[in-house]
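anyone seen this seq b4? input:
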Amino acid sequence: MKILIVEDEPELLQEIKLYLEKDDFVCETAHNYNLANEKLNLYDYDVALVDITLPDGSGLELIRQLKSLHKDTGIIIISAKNSLDDKLNGLDLGADDYITKPFHLAELNSRIKSVLRRRRFNGATEIIHNEIKIFPDDKSVMVNNQKLTLTKKEYELLNFLIANKNRLLTKESIAEHLWGDNIDLADNYDFIYTHINNLRKKISAARGNDYLKTVHGMGYKYTD
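predicted toks r here
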């Protein structure tokens, strides 16, 4: 899953990034309004962590901008203790949750996962698509009650595909989601085919169906 962290305190920004990356999130950062606004317009994220008070603008305006783009990004407000009005305004604009400084990183991680479950999978603790079951808490996958041995990227790839079922996903969007925004500097995205092919083989070996369709010249679509 891909997270954008918008926070102007360098130490806190780095602490959040390192902690979430240990839990296999792909994290991008922005230390001010202008950079965050640019990233939100260019890229897609599963969750954006938005500090309300930024040196060159308001996090509330970022939330407003994000909602105007109609992207399915979960939003968690990071706020100071005395900013109740800002928190309420952010929730009114469409934010999913808020957390008040100072906070424990474990609590932030828990809130992120809760937002992801609510937005992507209607709050389910298990993601089920026919014979395929995903268990986000321990990042495991079962096919026909047989546990698959997946790499981290294969697990995230399957999760991303099922979360975007019946939507065309370009190779670029898959690469950005799994490896971060800087991957758009890559010369090509042929490595995506390797991960797709490996995932297909492992599901097939467990007698699972191939729901992933190749749309030639465009990308992939995970279907019913």
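The longest strand covers residues 74-79. DSSP finds eight helices and 14 strands in the chain. kinda curious what u guys think
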